[in-house]
Amino acid sequence: MDAMQVADTGHRVPKTYRVRTEIEAILGELAEGDPVPSERDLAARFEVARETVRQALRELLVAGRIRRQGRGTVVSRPKMLQPLSLSSYTEGALSHGRIPGRLLVSWDDVPADADTAAALGLAPGSPVMHLERILLADGERIGLESTFLRLDRFGGLRADYDPTTSLYAAIQAAGVTFAAATERLETVLATPREAALLECTTALPMLLLHRHTTDSTGAPLERVRSLYRGDRIAFEAVLRE
């Protein structure tokens, strides 16, 4: 097969795309955790430069098909699907057979900036509770969640809430109902700090989810900024007419 084979569309197929397709066929015959052939072996098999193989592997890494393990590369499990719904991260992870977890980064009272104040119905500078936590799936770091809550309404959480568990469950246990949410999803790159917390590089595409939630009375509950590794998670929504 020529490295720049002409496709049915009449356009030339980039060499990297052809190599990536060939590697994907190899991955289809392997199981999760199996080692991926080395760059040298793949370059020899496809008679291409190692840089071509390296680029194809980078694309497969971003796509979540493979992952780094030590000094090598292995086949990754499929991306975790997280629903765009009022369910919590915990519920979403459990529904796909994953074990959810969280690591607390910080839990502070901070003055609300203009966006947070508007989302929570407060005056700018009002004190709000801020929780920053790393989201885990089967022990792997896949997201960084930053949650802002009204201090005058949820300050009592400090007494007995375990921040490594579901915040939604704790709020619902207090008799509060999550009724509606507005979400915005976009692609971004992580800052050096965020990449360090998520144990990835700043070149890895991220999915950034903004959420404003209200209760059954229409009162604002939270403002959430969640950053997810684009190679480990995908989102899905059920649409009905």
What's the topology here?
Elements: H1 15-27, H2 39-46, H3 50-62, E1 66-69, E2 72-75, E3 80-83, H4 89-95, E4 100-111, H5 114-120, E5 127-137, E6 140-150, H6 151-154, H7 167-173, E7 178-189, H8 192-198, E8 205-215, E9 220-229, E10 233-236
Parallel strand pairs: 3-10
Antiparallel strand pairs: 1-2, 4-5, 5-6, 6-9, 7-8, 8-9
Describe this entry's structure for a reader.
This protein is 27% helix and 34% strand. With 241 residues, the chain is of the alpha+beta class. The chain has two domains: 15-75, Orthogonal Bundle (Arc Repressor Mutant, subunit A); 80-236, 3-Layer(aba) Sandwich (Chorismate lyase). A hairpin with a 2-residue loop joins strand 5 (127-137) and strand 6. Helix 1 crosses helix 3 and helix 2 crosses helix 3 (50-62). The N and C termini lie far apart (47 Å).
Beta strand count: 10
Named CATH architecture of the largest domain: 3-Layer(aba) Sandwich
User: Terminal Cα separation, in Å?
Assistant: 47 Å
Strand content: 25-35%
CATH-defined fold name of the largest domain: Chorismate lyase
Q: Tell me, briefly, the overall form.
A: elongated
For the sheet with most strands, the description reads: 6 strands, antiparallel
Cα gyration radius (Å): 22 Å
Considering the protein shown, what is the CATH homologous superfamily of the largest domain?
Answer: Chorismate lyase-like
Stretches where pLDDT falls below 50 for ≥5 residues? 1-7
- Helix- and strand-based class? alpha+beta
Report strand order across the widest sheet. Answer: 4-5-6-9-8-7
Tell me, what is the CATH class of the largest domain? Alpha Beta
Question: How do the SSEs run, as a string of H and E?
Answer: HHHEEEHEHEEHHEHEEE
The average pLDDT value, as a whole number, equals: 88
